[in-house]
Structure formats: structure tokens, C-alpha cells
Design brief:
The protein is an alpha/beta fold. It contains twelve helices and 14 strands. Helix 5 runs parallel beside helix 6, helix 7 packs parallel to helix 9 and helix 10 packs parallel to helix 11. The structure holds S-adenosyl-L-homocysteine (SAH).
Amino acid sequence: MKANLLGFDASGLERFFAEQGEKPFRARQVLRWLHQRHEGDFAQMSDLAKGLREKLVATAGVEAPQIVGDTRAADGTRKWLLKVDGANAVEAVFIPETSRGTLCVSSQAGCVLDCAFCSTGKQGFNRNLGTAEIIGQVWLANRLLKVDRQGARPVTNVVMMGMGEPLLNLDNVIPALRLMLDDNAYGLSRRRVTVSTAGVVPGIDRLRDECPVALAVSLHAPNDELRDRLVPVNRKYPLSELVKACNRYLDKAPRDFITFEYVMLDGVNDSDAHARELVALARRVRSKFNLIPFNPFPRSEFKRSSPERIRGFADILARAGLTATTRKTRGDDIAAACGQLAGDVADRTRRSVTLKEVRA
Ligand code: SAH
């Protein structure tokens, strides 16, 4: 089988070239062709010797997921459905803003965590995405979207907030993150790359040790009783453990706070009392809140909190001196908003079993 060069970070590519009897600096050249010029054709890589180009054609390939759907929302948000194998497709979403372009990237086909309010969780889990399939989303988006007038790349920020739990797929996610940060690839600063987790504590520690980037934690409840129901992985890693892990992470984090995501569910987690409990919790971690109005999906059993309720909730946090922003809902007319990504996943799990098996 040919090696897919999109699946290698710098050190992986150096190893690949060493095995071919080539100099390590070839890796840097090829990395630039692949990730800065989004070139997938070895014949075009004009600064490589002809013999090397021929060798690459014989031994390697550049395979990104196949785009099988491309939808644009009224607000400019764009969603791609990407086929990763015969049975599975995942989604990536590009969210343009005036001074930046954020790509929301998937890490798994489906998800085992089964959060009560999340459409991806309802699909079940099929498999981890490989590094090439993860970085391939960034590669495709940059290739398809036009560079702006200054020649800047369209994707300026990446959030690992698409389908799946990135901290349950770190073997593949970490090389992809390294490529996002690598100056010979995407060259993004650590603050512009965010990993979001439902709270997989050993994964938080591993990310801290191996590739610290901005961290977002999907909190969604201020106490274990409610969080056990909404985010079942809390039964394995309760809030006290999660808070400790966040504080360990902050030692190495590129930002001096953790972003707590909090989905606003009408009548479930959005009362004044919940907000006050949250204030007490937030005193234990340097954090900022991102309130996410719940995005409905077919057969979801929750309702979005009213704008007045969200404002009231945010006010309580603000009066306690916490920073709380409310996430703008983007792309909901094409089911591209948070929690609406479903892709097309061939479920192979029995979720009650897999939650017990969760290990980072
Ligand atoms: N598994 C990771 C990555 C997914 S990120 C995590 O849980 O953080 C997706 C974000 O959208 C998470 O904060 C998730 O809790 C939130 N979300 C899920 N379903 C949602 C919905 N229906 N409406 C709004 N936000 C939702």
C-alpha cells in the first residue's frame, strides 16, 4: 500500500524520507508543498529532483477525504460532508468572520460519549479518524476557499469541535495538531487552535504534556448529579477530577484560562440557582464561559433557553466577575451549528458498553 503523506507530521515525514534513503530536509520541502501550497501532485513539486518525484509517485500518495456534500448557509457558513470510507462520512464547517476564518474539524466518525443533547452522540460510534483524515479537512478547506486580498490563508483558526471526542483519539489528533502549528505547514499559533473535550481527564493530561493548545471543556452543568445525566462521561471523571485536570493544564496552556462551554437548555441547566452554583465552581479554575444556545436536531428532546433567560444567566456570571460570552449561532439553517453535525456514521457500538471502556 502507498503511504498517504497527509498522514505524517514533520517527524513522521522525515522518517518516511529516511526510509527511502533520502535527506531529512526533503521532508520540509514536501511539507511546504502539501500544506502551504496544497499541492497533491508530486509532478508539480518543481524543486524536487525528477528521480525523487518518480519515486514518490511509485511509493506515496496524497489522499484527502472525498467531498460528497457542500452546503452554504445564508450567513456564509459552509459545511462539507466528507466521505472517509465506504460506510462513514464526517462533517467539517467553515465559519467566516470579518477578521478570521474558523474551521470546525471532526476527529471521529460518531462518538461514544452520548451526551444527551448532541446529535453526533445519537449516531453511535464507528471509528477514529486517521491523521490524514483530520488534517485533510484543513487541507481541503484551505484549498477550496480563496485566499484573501492580502494573500492570507482562509483558515486562521481551527477548533476541534466537530464530530467526535478528540481526546479519545490523541494518537491521530496530536500529529494533526502539530501540523496545524508547524511553520512549514499551517503555522497557526497555539492560541488559534482549540481542542474541545467533554472531560476526558487522562486525555487532558496527555495533551498538556505532548501538545498544549487552547483548551475548551464542555461543562454544561454545575454539579455532578446533573452532569452525570447530560454528559455521561462525568460518571467516570466527576467535576472534582475535571477541575484538577484543568488546573494542571493551565500550567502549560497557551492561554491563561480554560473556556467552559455551557449549552443553554430550557428548564434543565439554565436557572439562576445553576448560574450561582457555576460561579462557585468557576472560582476554582481560571476560566471564561461560552454559553451556547441549544441547537435542535431531529428527535432532540430539549428546547433552547430564551434569549432573556440566557441574558439573565450571563448577567449572574458577569456580576460575579466572570467573563461570559454567548456563542452566535452560525449555520443552523444547514444543520451546521454546534451539536447538529451528524455526518453519516455506520454505528457499530453498543453505547452502554463503550462508555465503560472509555480510556484516553
Ligand atoms: N466531544 C467534544 C467535541 C465536540 S465540540 C466536546 O464535547 O467538547 C461540540 C460542542 O457543541 C460541545 O461543547 C458540545 O457540548 C456542544 N453541543 C453538542 N450538542 C449541542 C447542541 N445540540 N446545541 C448546542 N451545542 C451543542
